[in-house]
């Protein structure tokens, strides 16, 4: 949905036609796993993440780039579903086209249709997955692409990757000198490829610390590859063709990696669906976050500052309609509008759709729940995806990694089959749905599964047979599911972060109630470190969330209170914020708190940074960290204006020091 005021106005300024890119988005998703939610419900891109249509988040970040033309490629059967999206967004772009394709069976079919119509005649941004999100403006990547094209017209594509500490990610080989791609990961396993030893003699760098963002900058030569190869189904086919036949085609592909301060993610399966939801709510993709999105309906999202979001009718802003007092919400949680929630309900790391009812004492963790659901009392739901209008009876304990399609009415008695890793539906798959199989289960349900044997939940998990299933029972899920989970903690990213922040908030609150002594700071540091180890939190995340939690304390509601407590707790800050990267995380915590319905905090932000920097204040921040953080801010961020005097002052100080050195 269109973003708020100043961002939108800045983004729709006139841009030069000669040099700007067109964004091409393939609106249909060809991932078989999502088929249970596509029957008569429109394309996957209109399903919701954080109670906002997926496509709106994607278009919103594109609006923050230089792009002023968008082409949405959509199948004829889904064309009418996307017309409201066109109406909602077209005023924000110079051109917004919906291009219908007749019965496309793959991304390749859609791109061949686009090339056949000769609509694209210059370079373009290609997004083959409509659920692709980033907070990057791509300014540097676009400039690099143009420079390469100017030097050699055969440089036809730049693949954009993001940095990642989780080695589930892609493995690629690039030339150290210019970032040219020479080795691309295997189709069946993104973490591996087959490599000839001669590549190591050509100054090739092997990288396995990056993730494919799904974003590519392309010349029209890329479309030609699809038109001349009718068997190409996706972007990877074109990449491998160019690499395999480089001496014949004379085409080159390069790789560009986002800065560390920039984040990107895609939704490719249900595991990544939960991860993307958590990243958006936890503001890792800021300014792309739920409370920066306008709803076309009569309500908006309100955040209370701990990344807990509520859908509130516009005339009731300022009152959370009773939800806050009834539900115990952990961080990274959202409750939609018109929900009815009884006492002692606990929701952590989850999204609850509009109009849903939740009964007394129910616990929900790491779930996405659709609209108009009816969840009974005393239920336990964890790591699950639940569609719209689903009814769950009292006391029901749903297995982890279950997928419930819309309009299900779960029986009071347990099913005769495990649903972990499968999709439970009231209908069988279409005969045309290739790659899907099903089993009938008691109650007239159909248990959908992939013919390949892989889990519906995640691309990384292959199911066994019968009792040997990786997802056998809820009691054994923790031991068996996702065999490489220990080396890939992103599998349940929302949970450890939420637990860590909740634990240190409790520790800080408890210490505030005691008479202060220096030993209390030592105790607090020990508790934070213990929680860090227990929840497998990185030091950078400790730096971010420790300060983020600190500024949420009641004692820090005013700037005076913040200064007094910060000086008293100086031992905490000197322990964690000596490294520059930790100082940047501190500033990012302040940035994320900015704009969360707290005008006093927003006005005090420059004074807060100044206090944290100067020796007469806390003296924790250093100028390079402040300048690095300021440089990473979005060009349209109001924080840039607020910080201008301080930034100018720091730059003058730096120049004077340089002059003295000379």
TrEMBL record:
<dbReference type="GO" id="GO:0003743">
    <property type="term" value="F:translation initiation factor activity"/>
</dbReference>
<dbReference type="GO" id="GO:0005851">
    <property type="term" value="C:eukaryotic translation initiation factor 2B complex"/>
</dbReference>
<dbReference type="InterPro" id="IPR016024">
    <property type="entry name" value="ARM-type_fold"/>
</dbReference>
<dbReference type="InterPro" id="IPR003307">
    <property type="entry name" value="W2_domain"/>
</dbReference>
<dbReference type="InterPro" id="IPR029044">
    <property type="entry name" value="Nucleotide-diphossugar_trans"/>
</dbReference>
<dbReference type="GO" id="GO:0031369">
    <property type="term" value="F:translation initiation factor binding"/>
</dbReference>
<dbReference type="InterPro" id="IPR051956">
    <property type="entry name" value="eIF2B_epsilon"/>
</dbReference>
<comment type="similarity">
    <text>Belongs to the eIF-2B gamma/epsilon subunits family.</text>
</comment>
<dbReference type="InterPro" id="IPR056764">
    <property type="entry name" value="LbH_EIF2B3/5"/>
</dbReference>
<protein>
    <recommendedName>
        <fullName>Translation initiation factor eIF2B subunit epsilon</fullName>
    </recommendedName>
</protein>
<comment type="subunit">
    <text>Component of the translation initiation factor 2B (eIF2B) complex which is a heterodecamer of two sets of five different subunits: alpha, beta, gamma, delta and epsilon. Subunits alpha, beta and delta comprise a regulatory subcomplex and subunits epsilon and gamma comprise a catalytic subcomplex. Within the complex, the hexameric regulatory complex resides at the center, with the two heterodimeric catalytic subcomplexes bound on opposite sides.</text>
</comment>
<feature type="domain" description="W2">
    <location>
        <begin position="494"/>
        <end position="660"/>
    </location>
</feature>
<keyword id="KW-0963">Cytoplasm</keyword>
<dbReference type="InterPro" id="IPR044123">
    <property type="entry name" value="W2_eIF2B_epsilon"/>
</dbReference>
<dbReference type="GO" id="GO:0005085">
    <property type="term" value="F:guanyl-nucleotide exchange factor activity"/>
</dbReference>
<dbReference type="Pfam" id="PF02020">
    <property type="entry name" value="W2"/>
</dbReference>
<dbReference type="Pfam" id="PF25084">
    <property type="entry name" value="LbH_EIF2B"/>
</dbReference>
